[in-house]
């Protein structure tokens, strides 16, 4: 290896994480080996092990970076002073943005979000997304003066049960849209928001949200 190829430690680590993200997103955790990452990064496996002592440590670092990116985007976009509906729209927009701008990160999330054996960071992301969607929908109901305490409790139970369905549907819809670029993004986003906000029963009845301003 020539002197020109020797990167400072921090830059080399950043490069390895970027390459590992692509490999994990493409192959998945179980099929990706340290050899694959070293070869794709054009470094020796010994050098890779200087930065990460195991595949598990490397995957944890990659997923932590992905989670930090997604949650940072959500924190910047979902503003507490906005209405619950606008915050749902912002969350959906963030997911579409991330999938478009970071396809390797999106592939990793889709492959591993529901696989608890591959580490805690993605489980935390799943829980955060689900809780956020649920809290926003419940806030809308709690603000309704006609809702009795019993009705609110029943509604909360239904919403919490629907959270895994909503999270899975969101991932599937965004991934489907990536594979069908002829579908206008604004239409796909609107359908995602309506599915989360109105629910399947109200959608079947023909109810729709007014266009976003």
Describe this structure in words.
There is one protein chain. This protein is mainly alpha-helical. The chain contains nine helices and no strands. The chain is 75% helix and 0% strand. Residues 33-52 bind DNA. InterPro entries: Homeodomain-like_sf (IPR009057), HTH-type_TetR-like_transc_reg (IPR050109), HTH_TetR (IPR001647), Tet_transcr_reg_TetR-rel_C_sf (IPR036271).
Outline of this structure?
With 213 residues, the chain is mainly alpha-helical.
Order of helices and strands: HHHHHHHHH
Average pLDDT for all residues? 85
Poorly predicted tracts of residues: none
- According to DSSP, the number of beta strands is 0
Strand content: under 5%
End-to-end Cα distance? 56 Å
Global Rg: 20 Å
Record the SSE blueprint:
Layout: H1 9-27, H2 34-41, H3 45-51, H4 55-77, H5 84-101, H6 103-112, H7 120-142, H8 149-179, H9 185-204
InterPro entries: Homeodomain-like_sf, HTH-type_TetR-like_transc_reg, HTH_TetR, Tet_transcr_reg_TetR-rel_C_sf
Protein name: TetR/AcrR family transcriptional regulator
Domain HTH tetR-type: 10-70
Please give a handful of descriptors for the protein shown.
single chain, 213 residues, mainly alpha
């Amino acid at each position: 290896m020539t002197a020109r190829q020797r990167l400072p430690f921090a830059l080399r680590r950043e490069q390895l994480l970027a390459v590992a993200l692509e490999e994990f997103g493409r192959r998945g955790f179980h099929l990706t080996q340290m050899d694959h990452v070293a070869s794709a990064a054009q470094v020796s496996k010994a050098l890779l092990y200087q930065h990460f002592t195991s595949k598990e440590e490397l995957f944890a670092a990659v997923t932590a970076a992905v989670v930090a990116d997604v949650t940072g985007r959500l924190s910047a976009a979902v503003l507490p002073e906005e209405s619950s509906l606008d915050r749902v729209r912002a969350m959906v927009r963030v997911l579409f943005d991330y999938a478009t701008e970071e396809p390797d990160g999106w592939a990793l999330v889709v492959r591993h979000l529901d696989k608890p054996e591959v580490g805690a960071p993605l489980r935390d992301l799943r829980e955060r997304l689900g809780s956020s969607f649920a809290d926003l929908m419940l806030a809308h109901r709690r603000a309704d003066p006609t809702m009795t305490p019993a009705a609110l409790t029943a509604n909360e139970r239904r919403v919490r049960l629907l959270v895994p369905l909503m999270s899975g549907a969101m991932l599937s819809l965004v991934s489907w849209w990536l594979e069908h670029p002829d579908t206008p993004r604004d239409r796909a986003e609107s359908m995602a928001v309506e599915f989360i906000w109105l629910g399947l029963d109200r959608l079947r009845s023909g109810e729709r949200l007014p266009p976003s301003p």
